[in-house]
């Protein structure tokens, strides 16, 4: 068995904390420069709706909806004490991105990774972090908590110093109270402690494993009351299947979180977007191959690093696979495994180091492909305007008449968003839940709202496109509506202007001449 890294004879750790701090500052500044480029999307309005409540109501509401209150309490601090503008609210995630970058630097010092400067650049410019680091949501702080939980677990296993165990217990407990997906982070760190117990120590494996796993198990036990309470409300609300991804989806999400999603590429560079996403994924797979060969030869001098990557990038997806097999068939999005972006960054750095031994043409080709795809994905994520909710709200604020009814669809969050962006609110009618696809409920809302109006509006999120179009066509065929104009402003959101009278048709025709920020060629998902 290969011995663990010898910190005493490795020389000074690299990189310096000054360089790490500089990378963290660059990461935060990059987020803040583009913080308001992308407007809020529907899930961010859930956060906004929660933080506008008083403290007691917020805690009760989050628990009753099956969510931990902790990330919303964190967001409420920014909302109540710094300001309600998008920039100040998104500062909550931008700062967390800086903390995560510091955590990457701590891991680099712990593992003595070569080309640490390259890895820090990858962390500071991480394309996926540019997306989640400019959101008013829980995801980026969860990545920061997971990163530091991993570092503290590694220090505890290396030193057996209970001060590190206590620090890990505190951070890991907060992480577990932050979001339910952290259970997979804790599982991967439990696997890491078992691997550490297997390779080191003088006493028996069982005793070493029991000692090293103690703070991990303690963090899980401390989180059980909250997890149990959340599960109780989820079951009561008939939300019995958490959205955890399958193994295949988990691997795709690992590549997304390591290199950045190609979300929005199709609207920026057309078919090149798919090719760029493929190149980035191939670069990551090659990096995995190079990192494995490098660590297997022991070039890095650290079995601990190999154990950490195995526990996270292999153990976590396998744990998710078991969970989905036993408890859920639902496949979830990449944000539930966003914390895997950190070991993903380390793999890219190891691939860079491993490429030193490759033939020059292969080394240069891989590095150029990685760099170009990384930068292009960063630019796309930095310039992506998201769901255009903000732009549509402002356009409607300037062009909607006060006497025109506005019917929304999307769990009431569209109301929060439209109000936040200053839309006049006379005539608001809360339509049906978008997930129910209840077009009969929407039809009744239209009939009630348009009885005495010439024209009106539907503001829709995931509306079930085919059923809605059929319903509008039916209302037009029976003469209740004279016409409608449907415009898409993202893959998931659209606005429909409807007319009940001849005057309303004239209103629709006049609106056709008013410039609007719609993406008309990209209809929303059903």
Explain the overall architecture.
With 526 residues, this protein is mainly alpha-helical. The protein is built from 22 helices and five strands. It has helices at residues 17-33, 42-51, 55-64, 70-81, 86-111, 116-124, 127-132, 139-159, 162-178, 182-199, 205-236, 247-259, 265-269, 272-297, 303-327, 341-354, 360-383, 389-399, 413-420, 439-449, 465-477, 502-511; strands at residues 406-409, 428-430, 455-461, 483-488, 493-499. Strand 4 (483-488) and strand 5 form a beta hairpin. The N and C termini lie far apart (54 Å).
DSSP helix count?
Answer: 22
Strands, total number: 5
> In angstroms, what separates the terminal alpha carbons?
54 Å
Mean pLDDT: 81
**Overall spatial form:** elongated
Can you lay out the helices and strands and say which pair or pack?
Elements: H1 17-33, H2 42-51, H3 55-64, H4 70-81, H5 86-111, H6 116-124, H7 127-132, H8 139-159, H9 162-178, H10 182-199, H11 205-236, H12 247-259, H13 265-269, H14 272-297, H15 303-327, H16 341-354, H17 360-383, H18 389-399, E1 406-409, H19 413-420, E2 428-430, H20 439-449, E3 455-461, H21 465-477, E4 483-488, E5 493-499, H22 502-511
Parallel strand pairs: 1-2, 1-3
Antiparallel strand pairs: 3-5, 4-5
Helix pairs in contact: 1-5, 1-6, 2-4, 2-19, 4-5, 5-6, 5-8, 6-16, 8-9, 8-10, 9-11, 10-11, 10-15, 12-14, 12-15, 12-16, 14-16, 14-17, 15-16
């Amino acid at each position: 068995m290969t011995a663990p890294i010898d910190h005493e004879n490795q020389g000074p750790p690299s990189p310096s904390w000054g360089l790490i701090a500089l990378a963290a500052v660059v990461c935060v500044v990059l987020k803040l420069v583009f913080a308001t480029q992308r407007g809020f999307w529907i899930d961010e309005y859930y956060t906004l709706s929660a933080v506008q409540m008083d403290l007691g109501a917020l805690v009760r509401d989050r628990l009753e909806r099956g969510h931990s209150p902790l990330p919303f309490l964190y967001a409420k601090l920014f909302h109540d004490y710094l300001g309600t503008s998008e920039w100040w609210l998104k500062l909550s995630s931008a700062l967390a991105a800086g903390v995560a970058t510091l955590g990457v630097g701590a891991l680099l010092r712990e593992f003595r990774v070569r080309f640490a400067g390259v890895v820090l650049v990858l962390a500071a410019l991480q394309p996926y972090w540019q997306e989640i680091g400019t959101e008013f949501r829980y995801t980026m702080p969860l990545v920061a908590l997971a990163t530091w939980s991993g570092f503290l677990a590694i220090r505890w296993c290396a030193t057996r110093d209970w001060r590190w165990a206590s620090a890990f217990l505190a951070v890991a407990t907060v992480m577990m109270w932050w979001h339910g997906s952290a259970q997979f982070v804790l599982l991967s760190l439990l696997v890491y402690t078992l691997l550490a117990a297997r390779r080191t120590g003088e006493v028996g494996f069982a005793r070493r494993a029991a000692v090293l796993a103690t703070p991990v198990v303690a963090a899980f036990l401390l989180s059980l009351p909250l997890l149990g309470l959340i599960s109780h409300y989820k079951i009561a609300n008939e939300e019995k299947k958490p959205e955890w991804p399958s193994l295949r989806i988990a691997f795709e999400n690992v590549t997304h979180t390591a290199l950045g999603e190609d979300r929005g590429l199709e609207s920026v560079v057309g078919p090149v977007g798919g090719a760029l996403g493929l190149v980035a994924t191939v670069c990551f797979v090659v990096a995995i191959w190079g990192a494995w060969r490098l660590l297997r030869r022991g070039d890095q001098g650290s079995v601990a690093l190999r154990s950490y990557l195995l526990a996270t990038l292999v153990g976590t997806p396998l744990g998710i696979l078991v969970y989905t097999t036993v408890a859920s068939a639902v496949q979830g999005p990449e944000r539930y495994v966003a914390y895997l972006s950190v070991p993903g960054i380390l793999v890219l750095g190891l691939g860079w180091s491993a490429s030193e031994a490759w033939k020059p043409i292969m080394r240069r080709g891989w590095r150029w492909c990685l760099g170009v795809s990384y930068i292009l994905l960063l630019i796309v994520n930095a310039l992506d305007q998201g769901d255009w909710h903000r732009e549509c709200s402002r356009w409607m604020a300037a062009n909607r008449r006060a006497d025109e009814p506005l019917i929304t669809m999307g769990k009431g969050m569209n109301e929060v968003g439209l109000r936040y962006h200053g839309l006049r609110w006379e005539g608001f009618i809360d339509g049906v839940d978008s997930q129910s696809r209840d077009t009969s409920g929407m039809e009744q809302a239209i009939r009630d709202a348009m009885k005495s109006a010439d024209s009106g509006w539907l503001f829709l999120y995931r509306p079930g496109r085919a059923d809605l179009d059929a319903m509008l066509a039916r209302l037009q065929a029976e003469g209740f509506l004279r016409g409608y104009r449907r415009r898409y402003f993202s893959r998931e959101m659209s606005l429909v202007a409807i007319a009940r009278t001849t005057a309303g048709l004239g209103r629709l025709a006049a609106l056709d001449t008013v410039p609007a920020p719609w993406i008309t060629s990209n209809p929303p998902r059903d």
